[in-house]
Design goal:
Structural class: alpha/beta
CATH class: Alpha Beta
Largest sheet: 6 strands, parallel
Number of helices: 10
Distance between the termini: 40 Å
CATH superfamily: NAD(P)-binding Rossmann-like Domain
Strand content: 15-25%
CATH topology: Rossmann fold
CATH architecture: 3-Layer(aba) Sandwich
Oligomer: single chain
Number of domains: 1
Strand order of the largest sheet: 2-1-3-4-5-10
Helix content: 40-55%
Bound molecules: NADP nicotinamide-adenine-dinucleotide phosphate
Length: about 280
């Protein structure tokens, strides 16, 4: 593990990055999290200068293009941010012997397995976003000698770019909420991602891991749990995902197993329900 423990956070305005910033501040750890205008991962020269100037030992890349439907119309941008820029970052980090933490996605899978996906399963993305995320993680794994790639799913944290925030908005406007019951994965809370990432760094773990909260849920189950937990009176109706016409195809059952990371670190990662409970306490 790097002796230089200074951390550089990229993608500082995103929900995962914000959770890192608040946790690193609380822990009094040495880190920098420049604004995107000073750290755009698609500006290769800027990234090179930033690494030379800030001299981190560890880079945590939270930057990503996550607009799954928009990526179908604009594959160039999705591939630039999620694949080419990550490939460049990996090359620059490797050249300087830095440690890179990068995040992948459950959308690298096609959802046809019928069981929880493990790190040994072959990816087969159904959409542009999934392909771009796969290319990014493959670049890190091929180029870097010291890295962590964590595949995440349904990330929920501070800010507005997550399902629970959108659900709250829909619940204000509509009494009846139609939510897909056959779209399944694992709601994963940024606090838990941060905790596990920092522990993995502390313990010197390397390689590819699935990092999710424990258990899994359909969007419908997640919505019902959240609506009940927040004391709302909305009626949540289960519908098939096919009733929503979206630009991108999505996997039906993309839930991943977090067994490997729990075993390696000797920890129990909280269930997604505990994550929702915490999220509600914070937002109340
Ligand atoms: N969100 C999910 O449900 C989900 C699911 C599976 C995996 N993941 C992965 O988890 C990681 C963290 O995601 P998140 O939920 O925190 O995403 P997020 O909230 O969308 O944050 C990503 C951040 O990256 C920024 N960004 C975009 N292009 C950039 C560039 N060229 N240079 C620097 N920053 C750039 C975005 O800015 P703008 O908003 O201005 O574009 C945004 O602030 C990502 O790798 C993501 O792919 C997320």
């Amino acid at each position: 593990m790097a002796t230089n423990r200074k951390i550089l956070i990229l993608g500082s305005a995103g929900q995962l990055a914000k959770a890192f910033i608040s946790s690193l501040e609380q822990r009094g750890m040495d880190f920098v999290a420049p604004a995107e205008s000073e750290s755009s991962i698609t500006d290769f020269d800027q990234i090179s200068r930033l690494l030379d100037k800030t001299k981190p030992g560890i880079i945590i890349n939270c930057a990503a293009y996550n607009a799954v439907d928009a990526a179908e119309e604009d594959p160039e941008t999705a591939l630039l941010v999620n694949a080419r820029a990550v490939e460049n970052l990996a090359q620059q980090c490797e050249k300087r012997s830095l440690f890179l933490v990068h995040y992948g996605s459950d959308y690298v899978f096609d959802g046809n397995k019928g069981d929880l996906y493990t790190e040994e399963d072959d990816p087969n993305p159904l959409n542009v976003y999934g392909r771009s995320k796969l290319e990014g993680e493959v670049a890190v794994r091929e180029i870097m000698s010291r890295y962590l790639v964590f595949r995440l799913s349904w990330v929920i944290g501070p800010g507005t770019q997550n399902f629970l925030h959108k659900l709250s908005g829909w619940a204000e406007q509509n009494r009846i909420l139609k939510i897909s019951a056959d779209e399944v994965s694992v709601p994963t809370f940024t606090d838990d991602v941060v905790k596990v990432t920092l522990l993995a760094l502390e313990k010197g773990l390397q390689g590819l891991y699935h990092l999710t909260n424990s258990s899994y849920a359909s969007r419908y189950e997640l919505a019902r749990y959240y609506i009940e937990k927040t004391g709302r009176q909305n009626i949540v109706v289960p519908v098939p995902m096919s009733s929503f016409k979206t630009a991108a195809r999505r996997p039906l059952f993309a839930a991943m197993s977090n067994r490997k990371i729990q075993k390696e670190l000797g920890i129990d990662i909280p269930t997604w329900q505990e994550g929702v409970d915490r999220f509600c306490e914070r937002s109340s």
